[in-house]
Structure formats: C-alpha cells, structure tokens
Amino acid sequence: MVNFTHTETSTLVDVRNLCVDYVTFDGKVRAVNNVSFHINRGEILGLAGESGCGKSTIAYSLMRLHRPPALISEGEILFEGQDVLKMDDDELRNFRWKDTSMVFQSAMNCLNPVKTIEYQFFDIFDAHGLVSSREESIEKAKELLRIVDIPTERLFDYPHQFSGGMRQRVVIAMALALNPKILIMDEPTTALDVVVQREILQKVYELKERFGFSILFITHDLSLMVELCDRIGIMYSGQLVELAPSKVILQQPNHPYAHGLGDSFPTLKGELQEMKGIPGSPLDLKKVPPGCRFAPRCFKATTQCRTQEPKLVSLGQSRWVACHTPLQLETEGVA
User: Fold this and answer.
1) What is the pTM of this model?
2) Which ranges carry the ABC transporter domain (predicted)?
C-alpha cells in the first residue's frame, strides 16, 4: 500500500490502491492497478498518458459512473474522509454535481441535441431542488453563461448552434452550476484548435482562482498539462509510474516513459531537435508480463525490470516514481 505524506485538513480527495476491472468472456482485465494519489484543496492535479492507460477509468471511478462490464474491485476513494465507494444512492446523488462535477471529453455528446441550453440548465437545478420556478432557473443560467463569457441571449439556442469552443464553455458552466469542490476535466479540449484550447484553459484557471475549487485534469498532451497543473501523475498500462510537480516532470523526469512523453513534442525555442518516439506498442492488458509493464519498450530495462515489479516510492520533494533505474537519480549519482 502506498502512503503519501499529506495533512488531512489540506486533502480533498484521497485515492488509495484503486483497482478497476473490466469483466470479459475471457476473464477480468485490470484497467487500473493499485493506483494511489491525493488532491489538495485548490490544487490542479494532472493525469497524463497514452490512450488506454486508465486515465478516464480513474475519472469515472471518482464519481462512481462505471457501468458493467466495469467493476471497481479494490481500494478506497475518500472525499473529505468519506468513502465514495460506500455511499448509498441518496448520498451518491447528493455527492454528484454538488461536491464534484465532470467535464466529459466531447461536449457535443454531453449536451442533448434536441433540448435548448436553457432546458438543460433547468434539468440540473430542478434535479437538485435549487429553484422554485423556471424564471429563477433562467436567471441562474444566465449568470453562469456570463461567467464563461457567452452572451445570455444564446441561452435558448440548441447545441448545434454553438461552435465547438462555445459548447465546451457551456459544459463547464453546467459543471459549475452547483459550485462543486472539485472539477474533473477529462480531455476537455479534444478536437479543438490550439487557440481555442488556450482560451478555455485560461478561463478554467481564472474560475478556479475565483471560486477556489480543485481540478483533476486528464489529457494525453503533456505540454498542455504543464502549463495548467501544480502536480502531474504519469499513467502507463493502468499504473501510476511517476508523480511530481509539473516543472519537474517536464525538465527532470525520473521514469523512462515520462522521459519519452517529454520528447514527443517540440520545444518552442532553442535549437532544432530530432523528435523521438517510444518504440514498441502499448501493453496488451490480457497478457501482463512479470516485472515492469514498460520493460519491453524501455531503453534502460534490466533483468530485474523484467522479473520484479517496481513499487511507487518517494524520492522526496513531492516526487514519486515506480522504477528500478530512475533517470535523475542516476545522473545525480544516487543510484
């Protein structure tokens, strides 16, 4: 079991040894394997990694949104000390949207295409008993649209009448409708151009500073994450392989996979550099080998790596890594 050093008063969410399986005809496939991390109040924590590494599975677990064949088989998800996995239906309903809300990957798929934006705001307010009339709901919805810089007269439009960036801002406004304590953002800028991406993330950061909520930010784009997050966790094949402050992940990664991710995007200044990909293919979770899951693709893999699974251990200064041969420790003469 991984025990992170943090104070109970500063911790909002504490995930402990989370395991999520997908039940198939060939048996269970473990998509998330013993993942532990915490999110502090007012903090932005990022989870990065390639497609299929378990990022979205963790996000859905935090709100217990999984449906069969997904199964949370082990672990704890503590929100202000209460285990989300043990909440009954009433507690879970109250927890969702009021305490934690989520911005999903595709805004167009999240919004009902045959209902106006106004109706969808009303649906949220009415479900949680926050308004006594449609007029009160409209005023609350207009206030939220102003927060995300959308003209209030657009409230009675349908989703297809908005651009991709505007739809995403509408979804963010809906996620903030009940003033949650944590906002989960799962690939919030997918399919948007880089200019719109920056505008949306800047707005999210401004809202976080204004309202004081925490954020779990999930993406495969490490360069985008570094600009926004306080700390970043790197996922590979269902496991958390590194966790560190964002600048450390970019400039001094310890895990070879994190190093490979950092080399996957070009720098904006300095000399031209040759881009290098990570060799091999993502692991087939039906055929998990002994030892480190990244070993077949790792340029530093040893016999120990191929036979003994590394544990997530502390390196000090809020740095954690699951690797037998960490890169920075070697260069610093510690290994």
Assistant:
1) 0.90
2) 15-262
CA 203, 249, 314: angle at the middle one, nearest 5?
120
Does residue 307 lie within any of the structural domains?
no
Q: Which residues have CB under 8 Å from 248's CB, separation 6+?
A: 319
**How far are the Cα atoms of 116, 174, 184 from residue 166, in angstroms, in the given order?**
14, 12, 19
Residue 251's contacts (CB-CB under 8 Å, 6 or more residues apart) are none
SS3 content of the chain, % helix, strand, coil (to 5): 35, 25, 40
179-213 confidence digits (pLDDT tens): 999 999 998 877 778 888 888 888 999 999 999 99
In angstroms, what CA-CA distances link 209 with 4, 5, 150, 202, 203?
Answer: 26, 25, 19, 11, 10
3-state secondary structure of 293: coil
Residue 95 lies in a domain: yes
CB-based contact 240:35 (threshold 8 Å): yes
Q: For 136-188, how does the pLDDT look when each residue is reduced to its tens digit (9 = 90+)?
A: 999 999 999 999 999 999 999 999 999 988 998 999 999 999 999 999 999 88
Distances (CA, A) of 250 to 39, 194, 267: 20, 20, 11
Dist. CA 226–CA 248, nearest whole Å:
10
**Nearest-angstrom CA–CA distance, 37 and 32:** 13
- Give the domain extent around 154: 11-229
Selection from 204, 148, 212, 203 nearest residue 180 by Cα: 212
Residue 202 lies in a domain: yes
Per DSSP, the three-state class of 16 is strand
Instruction: Residue 225: give its domain's CATH number.
Output: 3.40.50.300
- Contact indicator for 14, 38 with CB cutoff of 8 Å: yes
